[in-house]
Design goal:
three-stranded mixed sheet; N-terminal domain of TfIIb; alpha+beta; three-stranded antiparallel sheet; GMP Synthetase, Chain A, domain 3; Osmotically inducible protein C
Length: about 140
């Protein structure tokens, strides 16, 4: 896996993935940026959310659950000192569907957290406390 980060100006960078997709990263105005892109630490949270959401949806699809929507809502806390690493992350899944089995959703979230989500497991091994929760919304 490869990626390239190119400086644009001030605190703005263009990241390009090995698969050819690009994203703008920028800092806030009080740190030399123009607030025109995602912050790098936000990008880490987005990557974590994407990784675990991919797992959860893959598992639920294999279990033939009728999911119509899935959101991972993420809240994170960072250390007050430099480096201001993530200390705690809470990932809350809101899964909507028809006749969903809460036990299936619970298992999918647990399997992602404990076995499949490389991003989550890597961050936990680095000392980040990650909590998971979920809710099921029945769409009738």
């Amino acid at each position: 896996m490869k990626a390239t980060i190119k400086w644009v100006d001030n605190a703005m960078f263009l990241g390009e993935s090995g698969s050819g997709h690009s994203v703008v990263m920028d800092g806030p105005e009080d740190h030399g940026g123009r607030n025109m892109g995602v912050r790098p630490m936000e990008m880490l949270l987005l990557g974590l959310g994407g990784c675990t959401s991919f797992d959860v949806m893959s598992i639920l699809t294999k279990q033939r659950q009728q999911v119509t929507d899935c959101q991972a809502q993420i809240e994170a806390s960072r250390a007050d000192t430099v480096p201001s690493v993530f200390t705690d992350i809470h990932i809350h899944f809101v899964v909507t569907g028809k006749a969903l089995k809460p036990a299936a959703v619970e298992r999918a979230v647990a399997l992602s957290a404990e076995k499949y989500c490389s991003a989550s497991i890597m961050l936990e091994q680095g000392g980040v406390n990650i909590r998971h929760s979920f809710e099921v919304i029945d769409e009738q």
